[in-house]
Specification:
Distance between the termini of chain B: 48 Å
Helix content of chain A: over 70%
Shape of chain B: globular
Structural class of chain B: alpha+beta
CATH class of chain B: Alpha Beta
Order of helices and strands of chain B: HHHEEHEEHEEHEEEEHEEH
Number of domains of chain A: 1
Order of helices and strands of chain A: HHHHHHHHHHHH
CATH topology of chain B: Sulfite Oxidase, Chain A, domain 2
Radius of gyration of chain A: 20 Å
Strand content of chain A: under 5%
Shape of chain A: globular
Structural class of chain A: mainly alpha
Largest sheet of chain B: 7 strands, mixed
Helix content of chain B: 10-25%
Oligomer: heterodimer
């Protein structure tokens, strides 16, 4: 028991990330379990998995800005977990669309001209980008690729933009969640512009300065964070 | 799954028996309907206690207590969708953009009293009380497919009367070329109207010859009962060969006009929605496709039919019209 509590205390952030990531599709699973799905469950599955993919992708893109602003080192480890959730949900979303919705029927996929539909193309491209990123997310690949790894993983920005555009293009009216996600993505990307980034760091340091005397532990954390990609 | 039922919720036996007799009667009536346009049997009074008293003495086609339809399929042998599905999965942006929220948000919407102004270029403009419309015009069942532009569809047993019947009553002038329909504006009861998702009020239109087509009806009921607000109570248009958004709900005004009215969706996205909006698998929505659809209650996809399967009845209306350009 004590071991479990100690484990939870040590790994609470990582555990919380998993719980929240899974919670994104929990309402749907619950509805399915209790036989309360809507009259159009396939669309529900499509929407829920797509939405979960974008939310986890945005969350993984939020890790670096959160680290920049707060200097909180522990969040950095969540980037990979969240990214892998994004890839998993995006894959599931794709399979629901092609498999459940279209029954893998080439006839209907071609009749509906899916390969030429803009929203399909951008969504599929986002998934294609996430695929190599997911494969190379291990420590082994990170070492093997060296500097190239960082370059490769910058493609996640493109995936984020494509995913949000995909969501904007699916709707009948530009309204609600897609708009919110677009704004969040814009903020997260803006925070990476070097000028903005250094301003954020300055801002953080000023906050620290006002709260003098700074505890030495915090100061060392902040220094560590400077070296982050 | 076990559900606890309180004793008061259990149907008293005499009601239960009456319902059974009623259902048997309905079965006989359904058979008779195949031979003649026979009015279905009125349900026994005892079972009426489960419902609020009807606002008027309803004509037989609308007087059922339990959902009732004269057939179990449409003319293409596809089964009707359930009453529950039809009343709980609705696009009605005046209430919500969430199709499953409309039923809940609209349940207290007040549909009586309700007046419908019919005017514009007519010789005999008139304001009707909706209950007078129900009493004046013969109410009949029409089992129609509904194809949403979002590529899902249902089969629905509407009850209503022909739009042509109403238009004859007001006598359109010769210069009238189009019919314009307007939905009620009542933001205090329609939460969606407090936002600017679409310009309110919702407006739709038909060419006069489309409106006079035998398939075009004004629906007052569904499954033998008065419409519920989620389906557009107390009065909505049903034009089954067009995408669902043309079948405007909660109508308070019908005007005969000489110029093509700009429908709400045309105004919101002119490149994506045209005036005609005929169901057409060969004309894609600019962003999504329209060649296939999912029938609610089915898995997978099925072909979308030209004019939603009503080509024989309506295709002639568009002879010589470029349907690619006039989408």
């Amino acid at each position: 028991m004590a071991a479990i509590i100690a484990y939870i205390r040590r790994e609470w952030l990582w555990l919380l990330t998993h719980v929240l990531s899974l919670a994104l599709v929990a309402p749907l699973v619950w509805d399915w379990w209790t036989d309360n799905l809507s009259p159009n469950p396939i669309t529900d599955f499509t929407l829920a998995t797509g939405s979960a993919a974008i939310v986890t992708l945005l969350a993984s893109l939020a890790v670096t800005p959160v680290n920049t602003i707060t200097g909180w080192r522990a969040v950095v480890g969540l980037r990979k977990t969240l990214g892998l959730y994004a890839f998993s949900y995006a894959t599931l979303h794709f399979l629901v669309f092609v498999g459940l919705d279209y029954g893998f029927s080439l006839k209907y996929i071609l009749a509906d001209g899916l390969p030429t539909k803009q929203y399909v193309v951008v969504g599929f491209l986002a998934l294609l980008i996430l695929l190599p990123l997911a494969i190379t997310s291990t420590k082994g690949w990170q070492k093997r690729l060296g500097r190239t790894w960082k370059k490769l993983h910058r493609w996640v920005y493109a995936a984020g933009i494509l995913a949000v555009v995909h969501y904007l293009w699916v709707g009948k009216v530009i309204f609600g969640k897609p708009v919110v996600y677009t704004i969040i993505l814009a903020l997260l990307l803006t925070a990476r512009i070097p000028v903005v980034r250094s301003r954020l760091v300055q801002f953080r340091n000023r906050l620290r300065g006002q709260r003098r005397p700074t505890p030495p532990r915090r100061a060392s954390r902040a220094i560590n964070a400077e070296g982050m990609p | 799954m076990m559900v606890k039922i309180s004793p008061s919720e259990i149907t008293p036996e005499h009601v239960f028996l009456n319902r059974r007799q009623f259902m048997q009667g309905a079965g006989i009536a359904a058979g008779a309907l195949a031979l003649a346009a026979c009015a279905p049997t009125r349900p026994p009074a005892a079972s009426a206690q489960v419902e609020a008293p009807p606002p008027i003495d309803l004509p037989p086609a609308l007087a059922y207590v339990e959902p009732y339809a004269s057939a179990t399929t449409d003319e293409l042998s596809d089964p009707l969708n359930s009453y529950k599905d039809i009343t709980n999965y609705n696009n009605y942006y005046e209430f919500s953009t969430d199709k499953q929220e409309v039923a809940r948000l609209s349940q207290d919407f007040v549909t009586r009293p309700w007046e419908v102004q019919v005017g514009g270029l007519v010789n005999n403009p008139k304001t009707f009380d909706v209950d007078d419309l129900i009493k004046t015009f013969p109410q009949e069942e029409r089992i129609y497919r509904l194809r949403c532009v979002e590529a899902w569809s249902m089969v629905i047993p509407w009850v209503g009367f022909t739009l042509a019947g109403l238009l004859k009553e007001v006598d359109p002038k010769s210069e009238a070329k189009y019919v314009k329909f307007t939905t009620i504006v009542r933001p205090e009861q329609m939460p969606g109207q407090n936002g600017r998702i679409l310009p309110w009020p919702y407006v739709e239109g038909l060419r006069v010859d489309e409106a006079m087509n035998e398939l075009a009806i004004l629906a007052t009921g569904m499954y033998g009962k008065l419409l519920v607000p989620a389906n557009g109570a107390p009065l909505r248009l049903v034009v089954p060969w067009k995408y669902g958004f043309k079948s405007i709900k909660g109508i308070v005004q019908i005007d005969l006009v000489d110029e093509m009215p700009t429908s709400t969706w045309m105004a919101a996205a002119p490149h994506e929605y045209g005036f005609y909006a005929n169901v057409n698998p060969d004309v894609d929505h600019p962003r999504w496709s329209q060649a296939s659809e999912r029938r609610i209650g089915e898995n997978g996809r099925r072909d979308t039919l030209p004019f939603n399967g009503y080509a024989d009845e309506v295709a002639h209306l568009y002879d010589g019209l470029d349907l690619q350009a006039n989408f």
